[in-house]
Predict the structure.
Amino acid sequence: MHHSIQSRRDIVDGLHQRSRIATAEFYRLIGRAEPAVTFRMMVKPAGRDFFHVVDSRTGKVIGFRRDHNEACALARRLECLHADQLRG
């Protein structure tokens, strides 16, 4: 990997870490538990130009797409479908 790309990644990782620390500090100051946001459907690369939509609770592949944006759209659709089923 080119050194400039790696340095950008390092900077972004540092900023993300500082953001998480600041959020945790904010919730500690107001005396509330930090909300946990977890997504059930996750998009994972599964080869060159191929992506699996995986259920994070079971680890099973629910669907697949050749385009990352389409895989993310499928994951969002499945997430909404799952939420609708929980509501009844």
Summary: The two ends are 49 Å apart (CA to CA). Helices lie at 3-30, 68-87. The mean pLDDT is 88. Strands lie at 41-45, 51-55, 61-65.
